[in-house]
């Protein structure tokens, strides 16, 4: 079949080189005559893989020594519950900054476990209105936000100012997309299925002094102290998903690391937004300074024409461009694994569609 | 390389036919030009896979219509926390029957969420001493037990009598190993990594009238009512693990269903125990009526000789026979995917080792 580009918002495209390696060794990993998914997580080979993956992620993302890296199950939504269980302390409340669907969902879940204050930081033009909370943040055990909202395609490039308070970021859709200063965060977490690997594994990077405060009624698989002590193996981890993440980290290092991915991601997004801005048919409604580099939303303004676009694009090998049902329209998710060629193919198709339908 | 047989206790061997199909279509699933792990769980193809997998499991295990089947994350240990959160009700306490490491671990975790009474039901000879709790069970919201203890190799073949009370079974290591009457249980659950698929997905079969009682502080991904309403997709499920489970169910149906696996499993276990009982070197210490069909433990009585056995067996392609560190000795896990040929190769090797070392 002809070349397919998959713009799925998640589970999303993975590097072809990673999938090819996984395929090649699926029945015989490390020349053991068994699949990586059939061996004990406590065996020599998997323990080596796990340790190497932590080391590679540390190098790739510049994770300081005073941060722990945990691999868990349950997705970001699991962490929506685990975070208040683990991080609430003496102050007894947390501040949630909401900028779209996922940050609001995190706040809603947290309310089942804690007293939550919520501040909306996005206006009707999808523009971030406030990032300085240094005047109020000290009242809270932590401040939570989501730097990239996948549904609306809104990204927050500057880090909120929370003074000395603990900042927690749901980076499910933009982890490892560009270089960041980890030391600005108390905790970063992400479901793997956009930039890291397959669905079913969740990565958390947590400042060590924040670990060890979990309430008694914290499930042991989400107690950061328990998992930290057990090297993320208090129970059987999702070994195959972990293995794929390990291959992705290695692949990214081989490709030139985050500096290279940051450059590629900027070029991909700029190229697509430039075309959309020049188009007489397609438009993006997000404020320019908050346009996501990962999820590019666009509409024709006519829902029937949007549906026609999605159907014809799919037939042309440009998959999963339908926008989230909440917003409609189109969404091209262009995570790390999407090559520039995919964006160029999309633009070529959009141009053709524009000519035919305007 | 020569034929390898993998006796890992979990993650464990998977059917070779399933792995071969996964390998073949890893980069191009359903002729979509993408991997199954790269597509949206809400897309047409994955939704069909999910629905078919539920239907196949229902057929394979004879799951009645008044039971819900859920696919979750977090392993059995996640459920150790989720079960009290979901099933505790008016009575406010639960009874845990302990017969080894895993049932005791479940009770320990549950104590963080509920008042738990615990009764030990195994004696020093690894014999189950009591299965009738009909006199006391009505005091409890549920009674929990583990019908197969993987570390000691102790299996409980009869179902505990709990009268009208709700019986909950951790079947992580013997789900789908033989035909059972699901209607005797309120809930059955299992991590997938022994008999169902890869690590990272957890299956629960729950009587529908027990769903909907979760306390407020239940993480939404483990709220059975929430997941039931969302067809196990309140968040992104571990799609690749789910896909592999779906292939395993289909494979088992094609091989003749549970009647066939029950027969195969009985023959494999009987063949191995018969040899051990006839051996002058190896012995199994579990009471005959409670010997596990899934995890066969054995010792020489000499830890140095045990270590030599494990090393030489590994070199001969018989992998992962080292017993759990708690008990030492050897353990051959012979789940559904282990063919009789693997058991026969192990026995042949044991005989040779016995001749050379007695």
Automatic annotation (TrEMBL), chains A, B:
Enzyme class name: transferase
Keyword Cytoplasm assigned: yes
Signal peptide boundaries: none
Subcellular location: Cytoplasm
Residues the entry annotates as binding pyridoxal 5'-phosphate: 76-77, 102, 150, 170, 193, 235-236
Principal location class: cytoplasm
UniProt-listed Gene3D superfamilies: Aspartate Aminotransferase, domain 1, Type I PLP-dependent aspartate aminotransferase-like (Major domain)
GO cellular component, one term: cytoplasm
Pathway entry: Cofactor biosynthesis; pyridoxine 5'-phosphate biosynthesis; pyridoxine 5'-phosphate from D-erythrose 4-phosphate: step 3/5; Amino-acid biosynthesis; L-serine biosynthesis; L-serine from 3-phospho-D-glycerate: step 2/3
Highest rank taxon of the organism: Bacteria
Enzyme Commission (EC) number: 2.6.1.52
UniProt catalytic activity: O-phospho-L-serine + 2-oxoglutarate = 3-phosphooxypyruvate + L-glutamate; 4-(phosphooxy)-L-threonine + 2-oxoglutarate = (R)-3-hydroxy-2-oxo-4-phosphooxybutanoate + L-glutamate
Alphabetical keyword list: Amino-acid biosynthesis, Aminotransferase, Cytoplasm, Pyridoxal phosphate, Pyridoxine biosynthesis, Serine biosynthesis, Transferase
BP terms from Gene Ontology: L-serine biosynthetic process; pyridoxine biosynthetic process
Modified residues (N6-(pyridoxal phosphate)lysine): 194
Free-text comment on the cofactor: Binds 1 pyridoxal phosphate per subunit.
Positions that bind L-glutamate: 42
Classification via InterPro entries: Aminotrans_V_dom, Aminotrans_V_PyrdxlP_BS, Pser_aminoTfrase, PyrdxlP-dep_Trfase, PyrdxlP-dep_Trfase_major, PyrdxlP-dep_Trfase_small
Domain Aminotransferase class V positions: 4-346
Quaternary structure and partners: Homodimer.
Protein name from the UniProt record: Phosphoserine aminotransferase
Native source organism of the sequence: Conservatibacter flavescens
Lineage: Bacteria, Pseudomonadati, Pseudomonadota, Gammaproteobacteria, Pasteurellales
